[in-house]
Structure formats: C-alpha cells, structure tokens
Model the fold of this input.
Amino acid sequence: MISIRQATIEDWEKLRELNQKIFVNNSSFDEDLIVDFAMTPEGESFFKDAITRQDGCCLIAEEDGRMVGYTNGGTKDISYRKSKYFEIDNLGVTSEMKGKGLGLVDFEFYPMHDHQWTENLVDKIEEKRNKT
Done:
C-alpha cells in the first residue's frame, strides 16, 4: 500500500538518491536535464531547502517503507489572481511505479482546482513561517 508523508530533514539524502534514480530514468525524455544534479552541492542545498522551506512542503510516497516518489512545492503570489496558490516544483516516481497511478495519488493530495484547500494549505505554511 502507498502512503504519503511529509519529508523531514533526516530524509534529504535518501530523497536526493531517489531523485537521482528518477532523473537517470527520465534523461532519455529530457535532453536538457542535468542528470547528476541531485548529487552536486547545489543539489544537496536544493533538497534540504525543499524540505525545510517555510513557504512550502515536500511529500514522500512510500511503499512498504521504501521511497517510491516525491513531490515538493511552495506558495506562489500571482498578482493578477485573487486567490492564494501553491505551485508544484517537482513530481517524480521510480520507473517501476510509473503507470500505477502514484502521480495521481499525489495530485489527489493537492486538489489543484479547490481554491479553499489551496488557501488552507497556504495559510498553514504562512503560520509555520510566522512561528520561526
């Protein structure tokens, strides 16, 4: 069974290893991809920031305790919109999980067209940011 949880800073190394697998598998579809980005110092900073940023969140999908996908993103101000928005930066699953609906599970967690849900998420992120 697939479970989705919030990433913690303790996950950053496994998360970047997961991303490395995903990037290698996706490189044949995207020639602009820097395949080893996750393993660089910049990649390390990216993943630590994705987990700890105050205006966003990072979610990990697991099956039997093994990471099989992730998504991260953050709040986004759009000057010509009234509502608050959350933008997904990355969404990836391992090759063996492709076609099994895991990406749809992530999108069910992020109901994009539900403005009230998005505003509630953005409000929670803003509360978290204000506490620090």
Remarks:
- Residues 104-108, 111-115 have pLDDT under 50 and may be disordered.
- The chain has one domain: 2-131.
- The helical segments are 12-26, 41-52, 102-109, 115-131.
- Residues 9 and 79 are 32 Å apart (CA to CA).
